[in-house]
């Protein structure tokens, strides 16, 4: 039996996903998939940050090369490096948030396993 997911979003709109199981929920809202969804979201967050870091690294290398050749004036180079510094600090904070969320989710899973074992 494949019907529409019965989950109601915060906006009040019903999820448009297909609910294959008897619980009436799609994969994205079924509680038994929560751990897998969390892991996938955590990986996606790290992947985005890694792509951003690679891009910033290439831009910095290019700017260093251009500055060394005299193709980039000193004030522009300084402003660019300041901006990159801010971006890199933000990425560190963002990664810290992902790590904290990941650890909190793992702790909740362990607490749940421990309470079920008792």
Describe this structure in words.
The protein has 118 residues and is mainly alpha-helical. The chain has one domain (34-117). Helices cover 67% and strands 3% of the residues. It is built from two helices and two strands. The chain has helices at residues 34-68, 74-117; strands spanning 3-4, 18-19. Strands 1-2 form a two-stranded antiparallel ribbon. Helix 1 (34-68) runs antiparallel to helix 2. The protein is elongated and about 70 Å long. The mean pLDDT is 82.
The major sheet is characterized as: 2 strands, antiparallel
Mean pLDDT: 82
Strand order of the largest sheet: 1-2
Element string (H = helix, E = strand): EEHH
**What is the β-strand count?**
2
Percentage of residues in DSSP E strands: under 5%
Taking pLDDT < 50 over at least 5 consecutive residues as the criterion, the unreliable ranges are none
- Work out the count of structural domains: 1
Based on Cα principal axes, name the global outline: elongated
Q: From the alpha-carbon coordinates, what is the Rg to the nearest angstrom? A: 23 Å
Q: What is the rounded distance between the termini?
A: 36 Å
Number of helices: 2
Name the helicity range: 55-70%
Structural class: mainly alpha
């Amino acid at each position: 039996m494949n019907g529409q997911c019965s989950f109601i979003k915060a906006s009040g709109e019903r999820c448009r996903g297909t609910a294959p199981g008897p619980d009436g929920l799609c994969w994205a809202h079924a509680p038994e998939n929560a751990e897998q969804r969390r892991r996938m979201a955590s990986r996606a967050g790290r992947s985005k940050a890694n792509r951003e870091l690679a891009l910033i690294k290439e831009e910095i290398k290019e700017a260093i090369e251009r500055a060394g050749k005299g193709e980039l004036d000193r004030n522009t180079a300084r402003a660019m490096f300041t901006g990159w510094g801010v971006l890199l600090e933000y990425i560190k904070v963002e990664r810290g948030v992902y790590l904290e969320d990941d650890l909190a989710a793992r702790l909740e899973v362990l607490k749940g396993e421990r309470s079920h074992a008792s």
